[in-house]
Each structure stands twice: as C-alpha cells, then as structure tokens.
Amino acid sequence: MPFVAVGRENSAVIRIYYEDHGSGPPVVLVHGYALNGHSWEKQEAALLAAGHRVISYDRRGFGASSRPSTGYDFDTLAGDLHVLLSRLDLRGVVLAGFAMGTGEVARYLAVHGSGRVRAAVLVAPLLPFLVKTGDNRDGIDRSVFDAVTARIAADRPAAMKDFMDESYNVDLLGGSRVSDQAWQNSFYVAISASAHAALRCVTACLEDFRGDLATISIPVLVIHGDQDRVLPYEATSRRLPALLANARSVVIAGGPHAIIWTHADEVNHALLDFISHLDQAGGRQSGPENRLQAGSENGQADPPCG
Fold first, then answer.
1. CA terminus-to-terminus distance, the chain
2. Which among 4, 36, 121, 204 is most buried, taking Cβ atoms within 10 Å?
3. Where do the domains of the chain lie?
4. What is the pLDDT of residues 10-43, one digit of tens each?
5. 3-292: CATH number
C-alpha cells in the first residue's frame, strides 16, 4: 500500500495513504468530512476513461491513513497535501476538493501557491466562512456547530447516522439516487474514522477562508446542489464568484450535499467540461452561473442565469 510520511506523533510515523492510477494530465481528489478517497469512485472512473492520471488520498484520521490525535487544522492538513504533491512531483494539477476537502484546496493554494496547480474544483464547498459574525452575516449561527460537536462527543455513531441522512437527503432520494447499501457503505466509513478526527475536523471547518480566496487567481469551478442541507448553497457557493478572481459556478437542481454520488453524471459532465476548456481564452473560466437539471441524461446545462 502506498503511503507518504508527513510527521510523527511520539513513537509513530504519521502516514498518508494514497492511490495513483492512470496516466495523462493529473487530477488530485481531496475527500469530504467523514469519508475517504474511495468516495470519489464515480469521478475517478470518469476521469480515467477521459485519459487522466487520478490521485486520491485519505486525510489523516480517516480511511487507511494514520490516526494521530493532532493536526486537524487546515494549515496542517494543507501541509499533508503539499507533501503528497511534492513527493509525487506532480505538475499541472487540477486540484479538486469536496466539502471539507475544499478547505484543503483553498489553504494549500494560499500557503503553498499554484506552482503545481493549474486549476481548482470546489464541490459542495464549506467556503468562504461558515460562522455568522458581525462582518459575515450570511453565515450560520455558531450554536448550530456547537450542537453538532456536542452530539458527536455524546454519541458519535448516532451523529454520523444523522450526518449521512442529511448528506444524501435520504428522505427524498433514498431508494432512487442512493441505495441502502451505498448509504451503509458511507456510514461504515464514517464510524471507522478516528474519534479525534471526527470531532476536531468540525471545529476546523469553522476557519475563515476569505483571506485564502483573495490569493487565488487560477481558474476555479464551483459545483453545488441547491438542496444541500449540510453546507447550504446560500451560505457558501452563492458567495464565491464575488470572492474569486477567475471562477464559474454550476448549480445542480435537486442536488443534496453528497452530489458526487447522487448526481455523479452531472458532476462529471461539469468537471470534464471545465478541464477540457482550461486552455481556451488563456485559461480563464469566468462566466455566468449554470444550472443543471437533476435527471438529465447528458448533463447539459440550462441557459445561463444569475
């Protein structure tokens, strides 16, 4: 199994597990909260079929990576990503993050620069800043996050069950866009994560990324479901085009938080279309918001709006 060492805790080496498949222009996939690199399986298949080299990895505390009690902040997590990209000597990367993974993408670009990265993709992002404050009135009340951390501390398996229900909008999409078995798979991955990681990553997600976003000039694609109950579109993606120098946005109608599974065809279409057009107009991707209709077989966008 391939690993890179990113540090030590006492007598143990902290190792990050990764998978590296295919050949061609590289795409690096950063998974969401309570998941692992395999959560991208539908995007990995589409990218490999399109001739890309695809690298996914498990965040520390999750999947097959080490489970230290420290390092669950975005400076450290972006540092882990930096070690991986450096050890594999990747260049011209499309760096894609889902949910929590978008925090690593933004912090990596702000701290380590875009020398290895030609474009970024933010799927169901937690950016720009989740907490409602005096200068961030579109955020979410801090009490909501305090309740989540209290729930995890009191009964982590039950909290993960609730999280997966909300991620998939299982009351609406269960049995149609997500099977019981797919839900169960995600739940088992979530409860197998480090208890330290499960709790502390929630706190990490409250970091303010507005300063990070101001440093990003490479093309960025933002993809979000308009029925996301975990990271609501209005508090997150809707605000990003005004904060990014070179961005385009795709909104998937009826899409829940876990759109990389429930609406994989639409996500894959938007992702591959973005990558295929990176070299047009000097790499600029700015443009109006597109809305993809749920259930579209070809993933074609509606006429631009907004």
1. 46
2. 121
3. 3-292
4. 999 999 999 999 999 999 999 999 999 999 999 9
5. 3.40.50.1820
